[in-house]
Amino acid sequence: MRVQSIYLPDLMRVKIPLTDAELIKALLLQADLYPASEERYVRQRLFEIASEWDDIEAKLQDEKNVAISQ
Questions:
Q1: Is residue 2, in this structure, part of any structural domain at all?
Q2: Which of 16, 39, 48, 52 has a 20 to 30 A CA-CA distance from 31?
Q3: DSSP 16-64
Q4: How far is CA 5 from the centre of its chain?
Q5: In a domain, 7, yes or no
Q6: Could you tell me if residue 12 is inside a domain?
Q7: How far, in Å, CA of 58 to CA of 35, rounded?
């Protein structure tokens, strides 16, 4: 059995296109856009935002699946 290795720098050159929603989420969650003096609060708040975003996406996906199955 032959094992093929992947050279990591080659893998890192592959760009995966992001959706508009993913780009917006990435912009919102950039911690370096916020004051360093509030790092602890910012990290907690960004985690909350990311969690809420994921919940909304999951609900929308569920609604889409229900609509398709009807």
A1: no
A2: 16
A3: ----HHHHHHHHHT-GGGS-GGGHHHHHHHHHHHHHHHHHHHHHHHHHH
A4: 28
A5: no
A6: no
A7: 31
- CB under 8 Å, gap of 24 or more: what pairs does 58-65 form? none
Rounded to whole angstroms, how far apart are CA atoms 55 and 51? 6
The CB-based long-range contact list for 16-19 (8 Å cut-off, 24+ gap) reads none
**CA–CA dist 49, 53 (Å, integer):** 6
Whether residue 1 is contained in a domain is answered as: no
Structural domain for 25, as ranges: 18-69
Model pLDDT for residues 8-30, shown as the tens digit of each residue: 566 566 777 888 888 899 888 88
Please tell me the total count of domains within the chain: 1
